[in-house]
TrEMBL record:
Signal peptide range in chain numbering: 1-24
Source organism, top-level taxon: Bacteria
Residue spans of biased composition, Basic and acidic residues class: 120-143
Protein name: Biopolymer transporter Tol
Organism the protein comes from: Blastopirellula marina
Stretches that traverse the bilayer: none
UniProt-annotated stretches for the region Disordered: 120-146
Length: 367
């Protein structure tokens, strides 16, 4: 049994650039005053909510044709996230996962026919696991006090791919420990993922059938949330190796030989995602340099790629809502942005989408 089963990193506080030696530090994230125009209108238009009917929903991704989305959501009457897909234009959610266990991090295959996700449904003590979580949630409702959010590195979590036509579910990992946070390369030949099979969450890469697994990082702390760049050369990820609980954004070459830190601040920077055609990375971040509970907003960085490096560039703040805005992703054509937000009437996390406009070449705020 692994000793690190429940880890609290700084994303635990969620409700839900320069040169290699001078790293990016986003400005302090202060919500605009009532009489101050929001900066969001510069970048986001036609904002709309795309999920409903769930206790909470989030971490959504587009199908390759941009017509469907896949996401995780907590349904009524069940305590853990399950994976769903639905047409972006509207329609009833379709269950992808088995309906039991903890699930996370779904992603379409490049042909759009199958869906990758992580699940702990083979937990041999599933009924006990479910009953314990139900009891904790009932106590929260009774007392009116919420637990501090902590992501569960469930040791029974493995990565699966589901054929959406036949319903066949194929495991891609079977090693003891947490295997999750997987995403395909743009050519569909590789999967980057996070695993704590060696006792510490690190980055790995494998072939699409689960073979040829290679470990890429071995730093102390959590390395996770990997996404392979559009050209297949780099992987962007988050890590708290510098200070426990304070995530920063890094990139590493797919062979694991070159690594660069992109952010360095007193805060949490997580859920980085590549733009499909332009040299930008978007992520969620919050300033933890001051006392109190910080708010999470979306930030955009323009980077410079050379033959052997990724260099951080200017940063723009994309959202400034009093609600939490996290887990941003671009549509396949790069024209829309989808993210998870608590800007709902009941303050539950749900998926939102908007038309995206790029900022000018210079940042609108001083670094």
């Amino acid at each position: 049994m692994l000793t690190r089963l429940h880890t609290t990193v700084s994303l635990a506080t969620l409700v839900l650039i320069g040169s290699a030696t001078a790293l990016a530090q986003p400005p302090e994230a202060v919500a605009p005053q009532a009489d101050t125009p929001s900066a969001e209108s510069k970048y986001l238009a036609n904002v709309r909510q795309v999920t409903s009917g769930m206790v909470k929903a989030g971490e959504g991704y587009f199908s390759p044709d941009g017509e469907r989305i896949v996401y995780q959501a907590v349904p009524p009457q069940y305590p853990f996230y399950q994976i769903y897909t639905q047409p972006l234009a509207g329609g009833e959610p379709e269950l992808v996962s088995t309906g039991r266990g903890r699930t996370t991090c779904a992603y379409f295959t490049v042909d759009g026919k199958n869906i990758l996700f992580a699940s702990s449904h083979r937990d041999p003590n599933m009924k006990q696991t479910e009953d314990e979580e139900v009891a904790k949630q009932e106590e929260e409702r009774r007392s009116g006090q919420r637990r501090r959010y902590a992501w569960d590195f469930d040791p029974y979590t493995d990565i699966y791919v589901k054929d959406m036509k036949s319903g066949e579910l194929t495991p891609l990992t079977t090693t003891q420990g947490y295997d999750a946070e997987g995403a395909f390369s743009y050519d569909g030949k590789k999967i980057a993922f996070c695993s704590d099979r060696d006792g510490d969450p690190d980055l790995y890469i494998m072939d699409v059938d689960g073979s040829n697994v290679k470990q890429l990082t071995n730093a102390k702390g959590y390395d996770g949330g990997p996404f392979i760049s559009p050209n297949g050369k780099w992987i962007v990820f988050r890590s708290d190796r510098k200070q426990e609980g304070f995530l920063q954004i890094y990139v590493i070459s797919v062979d694991g030989e070159k690594e660069f830190q992109l952010t360095d601040n007193v805060g949490v920077n997580w859920a980085p995602y590549w733009h499909p055609t332009k040299p930008y990375i978007i992520w969620a971040g919050a300033d933890h340099s001051q006392p109190g509970r910080p708010n999470y907003d979306l930030w955009l960085m323009k980077y410079e790629e050379t033959d052997d490096a990724i260099k951080p560039g200017p940063i723009w703040r994309i959202t400034d809502s009093p609600a939490a805005d996290v887990l941003p992703v671009f549509s396949p054509d790069g024209k829309k942005l989808m993210w998870t937000s608590t800007r709902t009437d009941d303050h539950s996390s749900q998926l939102f989408i908007a038309d995206f406009t790029f900022p000018e070449d210079q940042p609108t705020e001083e670094k």
